[in-house]
Amino acid sequence: MMFESADISMLRLLETFLKSAPQLVLQLSIMVQQNTIEPLQGLSASASLVSLAWMIASYQKVLRDSREDKMPMSYKGAVVQILWHLFTIAARAIAFALFASVFQLYFGIFIVTHWCIMTFWIIQGETDFCMSKWEEIIYNMVVGIIYIFCWFNVKEGRSRYRMCIYYVITLSENAALTILWFLYYDRKTTSDFDALILVCVVSSSFALGIFFMFIYYCLLHPNGPMFSPRVGGCIFRQRPAPAPGSPADAVTSPPRSLPRTTAGERDGAPGERDSCVPVFQVRPSAPPAPAARAPRTERPVIRIDLPRKKYPAWDAHFIDRRLRKTILALEYASPTTPRLQYRTPGVPQEVLEYETTV
């Protein structure tokens, strides 16, 4: 059910930015030109702004909750992320509205140029959300519309450098658009004091957004604080202390696909750290008879014609849903546990690396 929620949140996010973001800029531009704010008009613009920030934070939380390799996001982190995107999008939309109220034609040229640059940047990042290349390009073009207003991570891995580059570009664009409006705005409809207030609103809103972004990454990120000694999230987490009375190297629950090591094999295993066996030993005259290996019971195999961990993220939701239903059906019908076998691009000996017991 969590996979369906992540897919629905992604579609709602795209729909929100395609509908609410242009309406927000249009409403703010009309307010600036008329120099008045009607109650319904202000309420509609506020609702559009909140919906944009809400959908980004909601998608990030649902996506982390649906993936087992990601740490879940707390509600405090979600609230701070809403405030982060709320203030940055507000500064961006107000700067757009100010510039569009004076330079309508140049504003359209600026939006198209920025969208083309962002789309090309996303395509160069080589995202893997769709199955075919052309579907991926269309998806990148839609995400480029989101990049007009705010930052949205679409690729796995560390994103701090890409995010810093994006916000440096956004800051320079907001400053340039606001300064150009301040130099050429109509003095008859807008006073100098009101113009100075609008400039301060744009700068302070962007500064507050960056402030909440630092709070999120330094204190409330799911993988831990940015400046914490345990960087790396759940991968480099400290190993828990062993239980009293048990050896430190004992494996509590080995995979079911591997046979357990018996007590005799563990006691007689050479190279054990706690043993007092000398380094050089004389080989016995008669080698011990090999232990009889238990016959391997044949289990049902689910073959997937894709390499493991290599299929796109969108297909991962679909494959995981179908796999769960198939595994449950096979476990109910067969006395043995089914196993998965992925396609191996290498030699046949590597097939065992891609076999997983569920």
Description:
The structure is a single chain. Mean pLDDT is 75; it is low at 230-240, 245-283 and 347-358. With 358 residues, the protein is mainly alpha-helical. It contains nine helices and three strands, in the order ααααααααβαββ. Helix 9 (313-333) links the parallel strand 1 and strand 2 (339-342). The longest helix has 33 residues, at 2-34.
Shape: elongated
Biggest sheet, spatial arrangement of strands: 1-2-3
**Order of secondary-structure elements:** HHHHHHHHEHEE
> What would the average pLDDT be, to the nearest integer?
75
What percent of residues adopt helix (DSSP H or I)? 55-70%
Number of strands: 3
Distance between the termini: 19 Å
Oligomeric grouping of the chains: single chain
Name the descriptors.
3 strands, 3-stranded mixed beta sheet, 358 residues, disordered C terminus, elongated, 57% helix, 3% strand, mainly alpha
